[in-house]
Batch of 3 targets.
Target 1
Amino acid sequence: MIEVRPIADATLGARVSGVDLRKLDDATFGEIEAAWHEHGVLVFEGQFLSDEEQIAFSRRFGSLERLIVGGAPDPEIAYLSNVRPDGRLIAPEGSYALFLLGNTFWHTDSSFKRVPAKASILSARRVPQDGGETEWADMRAAYDALDAETRARADGAVAVHSYRYSQGRIGGVDVLSDAEWDALPPVEHALVRVHPATGRPNLYAGRHASHIVGMDEEQGRALLEKLTADAVQAPRVFAHHWSEGDLVIWDNRCVLHRGRTWPGDQARVMSRTTIAGDDAGNEWSL
């Protein structure tokens, strides 16, 4: 029988034990899915899944996005890594390092797409001795905490999400080709969304949100930045300190996340699968 232990002093997240993700019957998966809907983030320690096993588990939640840029040999799984194929570490000041740096800012995966991602699954293959944690923030509780005036401004607002905007603020844009950038036009999403499984409303913002439709651009950006800054405060956040073999799934529809930095002379290799949104069809991923 699985054990689900909510993260202490946080409004989201739980650690799940007593299960081997390679050997799931339908009833056990139903328990996992229900816990995921409730807690938004589930941590499974010491699973040590292979790429094929991670993909098989991920497909339980829906179809997977496929990569449009370099990653693992299988286009359904990506390596988030500072290690080159020949084993050398990437230069900490180079374009690819800047590209990876974007992951250290609060965001939700694929919000810059017409149909954003449903979920992300990350597993640890190599972890640094220092740093490299991942943090998550509960955008359901963030919406619940809004004062009446701010909630009125957020309800009904539409934000523009743009990967060119978010990555352009950091650098490393030359990692993508012109054709890849052309495949990433800005898209619009409601600032407040309702979760299809739970019915709970939540904020939908993060670093890819560029501005708000119909609002002065700078005023809209200021509102988006304030909403995100307020959302990522205790008790709406928790961090996971990775060990090799750990696997985490989170709900991109109602959770923000960010990776923490680590020393550039230490290796970090993570494998990510991304579950496409329910209406996405055969979607791609970065």
Target 2
Amino acid sequence: MPYTKLKWVLAIIMIFGLVLATNLIDRKNFKGLKDSMVSIYEDRLVVKNIIYQLSDGVHQKELALSRKDSSFFNNQVAAINSQSQELIVKFEGTKLTKKEQATLNKFKESHQSLKSLEENLWQSRSNQRDYAKLISRSKDELDQLADIQMTEGKREFFHGKRRGDSIEFFTQIEIFVLIILAVLAQVIILYSPKPKNK
């Protein structure tokens, strides 16, 4: 009788060990997959929207300059600059790559230079030419930031896909090992040694 109990305990411990090990592996893979999805949303899609809004502000300035709309610079540019500053702060709060940080820093410098020129924009043609060059540079920097979002988004997507493939692979292994353990448990439980003849 004690031998039968030992067989049952051994079989249960084997199955419990497998379930625990597979759970820990799955938990790690699911966490990695979740982190990839969160990163794609927070650090790529949200930032893409921030870049769009910053681009819209730069575009409005470009249009006002081409129309020589001084009332825009007197009445609306302060609100656009304030909103752009808030967007830059939000952008800096995301997870940035080194290239992204460097490009964002360049855009911040261009943004500050634009603000400085806006105070005396209509005093000379050279100010307006410099302003137009800064607008063009700002647009280029925002385009570079948008390209980085695509590159990083793809990288995160493929990282998440690899995690998903890993989960699927381990799930198949788990099923295979579980079947082997079930057969082994049956053998342990059903095996009864023949009594020795004296």
Target 3
Amino acid sequence: MSYDLIVIGSGPGGYVAAIRASQLGLKTAIVEKYNDRLGGTCLNVGCIPSKALLDSSEHYHAAHSKFAEHGIKISNLGIDMPQMIKRKDDVVDQTVKGVQFLMKKNNIDVLYGHGSFTSPTELHIAASDGGEDKTITGKNFIIATGSKPITPAMMNYDKNRVITSTEALNIAKVPKRMVIVGGGVIGLELGSVYARLGTEVDVVEFQDRIIPTMDKDCSKELMRSMKKTGVKFHLKHKVTDVKGTKTKAKVTVEKRDGGEPFVIDADYCLIAIGRYAYTDKLGLEAAGIAVDDRGRVVVDMHLRTAQPHIYAIGDVIAGAMLAHKAEEEGVFVAETIVGEKPHIDYNLIPGVVYTWPEVAAVGKTEEELKEAGVKYKSGKFPFKALGRARASMDTEGMVKVLADAETDEILGVHMVGPRTADMIAEAVALMEFRASAEDAARMSHAHPTYTEAFKEAAMAATGNRALHV
């Protein structure tokens, strides 16, 4: 069978690319390794299930620590972990079924099995549903196979007590203690889940701060907040050994610059030090496709590989490993194939950490501007000065606006606080149109809302005009 476009991988990048291609009139197929599990890592063992658990843990934490102050009395408060996991699974199933519906609606053929190139125009599919293997041909291909967690051999990953984010989504009993190796987004989100449920959490981070790729002020604010929930941070430390048993994990830690090692006895050790591109057995050599020294597919500015009809998107190429980045790239490629001239500004793809408070950012960090020698001005506004935040008891965090010192163009926006994952879209929209901090300051924001903090920070960046501090 022959197609105009074959998409390998059904994560957010892959299935969105397939939908857009079908909308544009291309006969499209999508190949998924796992039978009846469309959606990739994000929908099945990543973004969606982790957010479901984050919401559940935040509800519990609010009931435990805030409801009494709201005048709400609760007795016999407890945690039903199996029900929490079941709800998470239900959310995942509904979302996966939604993608399956979209494939049917858009007349996209879904082929289950492991796809591998046998030539630049042919893809062999080893059936995963007990059916027969098949070979299909395509005029164009998109490699959208995503990524997998990095699990160094010395950490003895066993999927039992030494785990990754995948296994952390299905722990049936609240652990007493958990070690998180890595202070990035994934580790902090899952660490936040269990800390709010009562687990003693230790985060071991090699760098001198958590979320090291984000603005330093965001790192400080989030760490201050997470410490209040009992999370312990071991910054500038490294893990030298991990041993798992049937019921425990022993993690040996020492300062990165040397020092006396110490052992943390925990119920689980969660490895969260990053992910690597998943290109296993794709037959890239047969297709004439190169990978870089980190195993990522090499593409040009149009996301083409060395073969001009084969593209790659999402986690499998260089850049931030974000579902929404992959979606933008999927649409970009589909439109490129039919001759349109799409555009992606990678500087304006926001990043979010779904802890509570949330962290969200777009554009340049203050550190990046300093390193580049860009003259800028900064305005900050704390949520504790905001009426809406006081009303909801969400007063932790701040909004920071960075603007060009001469033109006043907004160069970066960094937020830590309630619902900043949603708030950041306003900053992205303004920056897409190269708005100034003055433009943001002059916009009317409904009162009382969390977004007023963005307006106030913009005002602070334009002559220290913030009104409520």
